[in-house]
Design brief:
The complex is a heterodimer of chains A (295) and B (218). Chain A has 295 residues and is mainly alpha-helical. Helix content of chain A is 66%, strand content 3%. Chain A has a single domain, classed as Formate dehydrogenase/DMSO reductase domain (Formate dehydrogenase/DMSO reductase fold, Up-down Bundle). Chain B has six helices and eleven strands. Classes of the chains: A mainly alpha (295), B alpha+beta (218).
Amino acid sequence: MAVERPRRAADEAPLILYTWLVPISAGLSATRCLFAVTGSGPQAGTGSAALLDLYGWANPLVLIIAGVVSMAHLNQPLRPWRLVANPRSSWLSREGILFGVYTALVLLLTPALSLPEVLLPAVSSTASLLGVALLLTVGALYRSTAIPGWDTPSTLVVFLFSGISAAILLSGMVQPAGAAEDWRALSVVAAYLCQGISNLLLRFGGRIRRTSSGHGRTFMPGLNGGRWLSLCFLSVEGAVVVLALLTGSPGAVVALFVIVAVDQLHGRMVFFGRPFEDPTEMEIERYRATYRDDL
Amino acid sequence: MRQIGTSHFDDKNRDVHQWGFLVDVERCLGCRGCEVACKVEHGAPPGNRWRRVYLVNDERHPDAPTYGLSMACNHCRKPQCLEVCPAGAYEKRGDGIVIHDAQRCLGCKYCTWACPFGAPSINPFTRKAQKCQLCFERLDQGQLPFCVESCPVGALQLVAVEPVGAGVKIWRGPGHRLELALTGREMAERVPGVPTSNTHPSLVFGLPRARGDGSGKA
């Protein structure tokens, strides 16, 4: 049966950008937290210290862009406070509240406010935890829908792991003071593994569920878009990881971050561009398929 | 369960806890009259249908039942649209009808993703959600919904669905075959074509004939 309501990824461009920027922001917060709590931040007066300052400015900028972009998704972008009217049962309301609190904490961490050193670990840790909570909330939001491709546990994993890979790569760009010699090598390998899991789950994930007629079980493929492109991404990322291991260059880590970012952006397009198959149509089709098997 | 047939809809029966649709799939001709009436009367834009008729087994497989399945918002007892709406644009009235307030709607589309029956849809012009409101204004005036009124064979009826507990309640209505009030999962298993849900849809079926069984009872 024909797909009832095909969707174009471009229709959801604000959500694609938002869900791509939020993991990056969470990654920036986690990196900042790592440096603040362990005291292993880059040494003053070096190029990497300037990069850390850049983290401080980049994070609120990323969040503000994410917030503005996500408002474009709404019919009434100038009344965003309405989003938080139903936190009791709506994941979107919870996400809105978390986003607001998280943004406020991130703004506190900007270099312009020069937060006292004593408070830095506590605020960084809280912001980092809220960043992870925000990622999980975004995942739970899509997990709690009736769209089979989204209603899988892998949705949570995809959002969380894409944040982790961003965090690891961002920390790998800077060699923290006192870190092991192979810190950079470890970070690219770990980031590659996280991104690989996220990549594969996003494009190859599926689930097994009972058919509506109760006759048997059927495999419901997950998000099937761009499987070959997915493998291409994994190959290119793997090649850059090998390059980074051989050279130990921070440039290779930056290159990997850029490729991973493109990979994640494309993954979001696959996620949101999947045809919105009407559940009833799908159930009918599944019933037919099951019935044919019985003959 | 207490059924109010279309001919028995009057003032004395209006004090109900939950209105719902009875879809008699054996009677349904698949003419889509209900779908058209709803669309025309409510002025739904192109691409938006608040009621849809799905033809199950329209390939006429000899041993499988063929029937039309007229589906709209089922005004569930646990409506997902109401649960997930961040702006509180959905409300469940005292008579069980789930209504949508367009003034409050933010157009976030969350309800269209969450409803297992695909009932809410986004109006491409207003960019707000819309769905079957069970013609509550007409109901308040003692009139039947457009879809029910337009059905030429009485396959679509308005019924009062009383709470029957969590289990299956079998009831033989006057002049009707076996009718079931089922939980969402059971409904999906007994009536192919209906999505699995745990929202307790207020939907009653006159069941299709079972395969190879000419008795008309499932």
